[in-house]
Design brief:
Layout lengths: L13 E6 L7 E7 L5 E4 L1 H4 L5 E5 L4 E10 L4 E5 L9 E2 L10 E6 L7 E12 L10 E4 L11 E4 L3 E5 L2
Parallel strand pairs: 7-12
Antiparallel strand pairs: 1-2, 1-4, 2-3, 3-6, 4-5, 5-6, 8-9, 8-11, 9-10, 11-12
Length: 165
Amino acid sequence: MVRDQGFSDEALPFGLFKDAPPRRQYGQGSGVIVSSDGYILTNNHVIADAFDVDVILADRRQYKGKVVATDPKTDVAVVKIHAANLPTVTWGDSSSLAVGEFVLAIGNPLGLSRSVTFGIVSAVGRADVGVADFEDFIQTDAPINPGNSGGALVTLNGELVGINT
């Protein structure tokens, strides 16, 4: 945890997703709480074809999630949980990012919950990566592994500037 940047173990606006497709396989990814009443932003590929979406918050509370919106073209999805007074992320301005700026990637890589990695913005406006139909990516050298998808890319002030994919 990055305590000196205003984050705490119990009040992080980030979560872990576990989904169970019909074949009883499961995958996992990350998400970012964007409203105090339970809307969570993640990647579409994290929840695509999911039979169930289980959400585990940083404080270990568990919820059944409902996919309420998806956009495969941009690889973005929104999941809703029934909760109130949740901590939310502060929105940043990704268009103001500069190459060389420090960022943090927050997520659940390889099933390890609440991981934070540090890096710099290596490039902005990356396209032709082949991940989504519409691409305008922020490239970072912060380590991002399977399970980080859907998690937050934040400035050192904790402002959301991207979603890890």
